[in-house]
Amino acid sequence: MSDERELPNSYAEAHGRTRPPNRYGPGHTYLGVPSASLRDPDSLAGAQAVIVGAPFDAGTSYRPGARFGPQAIRGTDYLPHSGYRPHLALRVDPLGELGVVDVGDVNMPQLDSEGGLERLMETCRQVAEAGAIPVVLGGDHTITYATAQGVAKHHGFGRVALIHFDAHADTGDSEGGLWGHGTPMRRLIMSGAVRGDRFLQIGLRGYWPDPPILEWMADQRMRWYEMTEVVERGLDACLTEALERAAEDCDGVFLSVDVDVVDPGMAPGTGTPESGGLTSRQLLDAVRRIGMESNLLGMDVVEVAPAYDQSDVTALLGNRVVLETLSGVTVRRKRDS
Are 133 and 44 in contact, with CB atoms under 8 Å apart? Predict the structure, then answer.
């Protein structure tokens, strides 16, 4: 990717605004947390997690619409947007205790995939450099090439393990150098940002990828847990093994959640639904564990496509994935302090 671009990183910078506007929809923040700007370091003071929008779906292969995901995830809730969300079971308020802020959407024009991904990568690097966890709301899964690599640019290539929930491996080999949501995991490994033997995938099922791609994945020493194994062994056992492997010779974890890991009966609002997935309850329990039991360095939630949703259930799931993960992080940091 080129380092010569001089375009603004966010829509706020592009339009000279201090409050971060969002590309598709009104300029509200995630559940009412304070707005911030990377151009104003003081606005990030005390923030341990930073919300970033990535409204990008130029990489979709079937049904587009995930560019509207960030706004849906930010706003879908039945409670006031007060920046206050105490967790009923854990007795923590992740938004307040972590000082969560929202820097708005990254500037990602649909006809400039490479430039948009470059700006997203730099945004995640800056957030990590500021000592905070970038929490990226996608967008299709193409963005993970930029989000995870941005975090690795700060923490060190090969030092960040990746735990990936998805129905699909996203390790395709697209000819012609095209960017797409079926290729980011291969690109990440080939870049050196994430080691293949510290790449853990949970929930794969269906009829893709083809055997040659699976052979490539095995050659990289990737570990994937297909739904058949998750059903046979149980999600807890698979996740325990994944967390142990992620902790070996790495400094922390990047979490990437594609909502299509959940069965489309519970998460219909996504571009490439595949029957037979996790329940929403299983996913929320799993990401909370990851927040509590790993050193979380960054995360993204992708493939929420509101046009195909029913009563906002998928957008609400994406919203709660963020809250459950950050609640786990809050518990871990209070415990370790």
Answer: no
Q: Which residues of the chain have pLDDT under 50?
A: 1-7, 15, 18-19, 175-176
Are residues 191 and 225 in contact, defined by beta-carbon separation less than 8 angstroms?
no
| Angle, alpha carbons 189-315-68 (nearest 5°) | 75
pLDDT value of position 21: 60
Q: Which amino acid is at 304?
A: V
Give the CA dihedral 188, 184, 142, 104, nearest 10 degrees. Answer: -20
What pLDDT was estimated at residue 122?
Answer: 97
- The residues with which 200 forms a beta bridge, in sequence order, are 163, 223
The pLDDT, as a whole number, for residue 1 is 44
- Residue among 29, 125, 30, 26 at smallest CA distance from 322: 30
Q: Which two tokens stand for residue 100?
A: 């969560």
What's the rounded Cα separation, in Å, for the pair 316 and 68? 14
What pLDDT sits at residue 4?
A: 38
pTM confidence score = 0.93
Supply 234's token pair: 């149980």
Q: Give phi and psi for 79, each to the nearest 5.
A: -100, 160
